[in-house]
Design brief:
The chain is mainly beta. It folds into two domains: 92 residues, no CATH class; 140 residues, Lipocalin (Beta Barrel), CATH 2.40.128. The protein has two helices and 14 strands; from the N terminus they run ββββαβββββββαβββ. The protein has an eight-stranded antiparallel barrel with strand order 7-8-9-10-11-12-13-14. Strands 1-2 form a two-stranded antiparallel ribbon. Strands 3-4 form a two-stranded antiparallel sheet. It starts with 26 loop residues before the first strand and ends in a 21-residue tail after the last strand.
Amino acid sequence: LIEWVSVTTVHNDGIAVDLYVPPPRPILDTTITTDSLGNDVITVDTLWPDPVTVTFATGPYSRTFTLGELAALDTVVELDDGNAIAFHAMRISRIQCPRGFLFGFWGPDKETGRIGFKGMFTDKHGLITGFVRGHAGVNDNGERVWFGKWISRNGRFEGFLRGTWAPHPDMHANGMAHRRAGGWFRGGIYDANRNRIGELRGRYCDGRYMRDGFFQGRWRLNCPNTDTTGTNDPFANLDDGF
């Protein structure tokens, strides 16, 4: 059981948790009975433990996740009081490529009206490892694209970022509904020579200004493409949502 009291007002609070699940082992239930001839009869039943689940519980919202859901969890739940709860998780193997999370502000700049984003990169344990800043818009071909730069905590260049984005499709929603619904983004991480070295994806909720909106997502570097869907999608690994 993990408990904490949030004391934030207009910002956010949260925790990062590592969940270790050992391989399930059967439970042997042995019973001894006597047959009609007076012989002892030993019966061994093999029982398996109940599936592991994780429950998140607060006053206004509770939910239970299975391990299968946690392996590729990436969702934001809007509450009736204007607050939101974000869940991000990934499966971590013993031998794996670097990966983690990113989050920050997303929305129009108050002075220019241009959509921008800025935030932080964390490792898989939630420790801040760097920062990101960039902008999003529509190019001459009518495509929604975004560009950014990732640096370490010491200011060292880590990678260029670029990709595509789009609001959640609801052509009948008004402007405020569009901003509250938010959308998705995905793209690649590139080294100084513009070689693609990683992937990232996530979702955003646009605000009236950048300080009112947010984005959250996941990233990974130098991972082999384990796509089993035949779509050549770098995020199609069904084990962890990438």
